[in-house]
Amino acid sequence: MSRKSPILAVVALVALLGVAACSEDEDESPSTGGTSTTAAASSGTSEVAAPLRILVTNDDGVAAPGIDALVEALRELPDVEVTVVAPNENKSGSGSSTTPGELTVNDATTASGFEAKAVVGFPADTVIWALDQGGLSEAPDLVISGINAGQNIGAAVNLSGTVGAARAANDRGIPALAVSQGLADEPDYPAAVALVLEWIDEHRDAVLAGEDLFDNLNVPTCTTGEVRELLDVPPDPTTTSLDASDCTSTVEPPAADVEAFVNGFATISDLNDFTFAT
């Protein structure tokens, strides 16, 4: 049997060592300590997006049906965390009133049993406790105030505790949405819920980016006909109305919220442009 040349043996050994080194390099994770792209692909894992954190409050009180309808719908959304901090009792018409000093807060639940915190105070106090007094360990991405029983349109924006809570959030740099359902013996909360969910879907990226959002959504309760459409209109600071909406009206889309609402339109108003009464 003939013997191999020593030079050929050395060449073969070097080649084998090179193959082994390449194999080891491919198996190593990146120096950052994360999973390699190959490993992530083979395991089917991917980076999980941060959830949208929503603080829900109102001015009708923590046990009111409007906030309950809203919370139950929000809980069904993907990648959403819901926290409820609301007044312990009805505080309608309190505007942006606040309580001086440390606030008293008790454990509570919504009508459907979702855990909440009940603040002894005004709607704006709920935001103050959550953000200024350490009520929440992490600031929310969005504050939704409502769903209020009764419209908050026109000059009533100044008196609305629903708007007052949203205003407190906006003053602290948190995107905010105030939501009200047209006054009726049985307010049609599902109608407002549907438009809130659409608003979240449309504005989710802007909310997570921390954009300056401060909107006031009012939705008619229609005894006949249906909500006509959603109009983006400014509040009319000279008047307001508690009249029922005529959802069978054929009036052309008005230029301000009060006339639009009483003629069956849902309205949304950017309150960044509204001059609040002092």
Summarize the structure.
The protein is of the alpha/beta class. It has helices at residues 6-27, 37-43, 65-74, 123-131, 161-171, 189-208, 257-262; strands spanning 52-57, 80-87, 104-109, 115-120, 142-149, 176-181, 214-219, 230-232, 266-270. Helix content is 31%, strand content 19%.
Structure characterization notes:
The chain is an alpha/beta fold. Helix 7 links the parallel strand 8 and strand 9. The N terminus is likely disordered. The chain folds into two domains: 38 residues; 222 residues, Stationary-phase Survival Protein Sure Homolog, Chain: A. A nine-stranded mixed beta sheet has the order 3-4-2-1-5-6-7-9-8, with helices on both faces. Helix 3 crosses helix 6 and helix 4 runs parallel beside helix 5.
Topology at a glance:
Elements: H1 6-27, H2 37-43, E1 52-57, H3 65-74, E2 80-87, E3 104-109, E4 115-120, H4 123-131, E5 142-149, H5 161-171, E6 176-181, H6 189-208, E7 214-219, E8 230-232, H7 257-262, E9 266-270
Helix pairs in contact: 3-6, 4-5
Shape: globular
Number of domains: 2
Number of helices: 7
Give start-end ranges of low-pLDDT stretches: 1-43
* CATH homology group of the largest domain: Survival protein SurE-like phosphatase/nucleotidase
Per DSSP E runs of 2 or more residues, the count of β-strands stands at 9
Strand proportion:
15-25%
CATH topological fold name of the largest domain: Stationary-phase Survival Protein Sure Homolog, Chain: A
Structural class: alpha/beta
Residue-averaged pLDDT, rounded? 87
Level-1 CATH class name of the largest domain? Alpha Beta
Order of helices and strands: HHEHEEEHEHEHEEHE
**CATH architecture descriptor name of the largest domain:** 3-Layer(aba) Sandwich
Strand order of the largest sheet: 3-4-2-1-5-6-7-9-8
N→C terminal distance: 107 Å
Rg, rounded, reads 28 Å
> What level of helicity do the residues show?
25-40%
Largest sheet properties: 9 strands, mixed
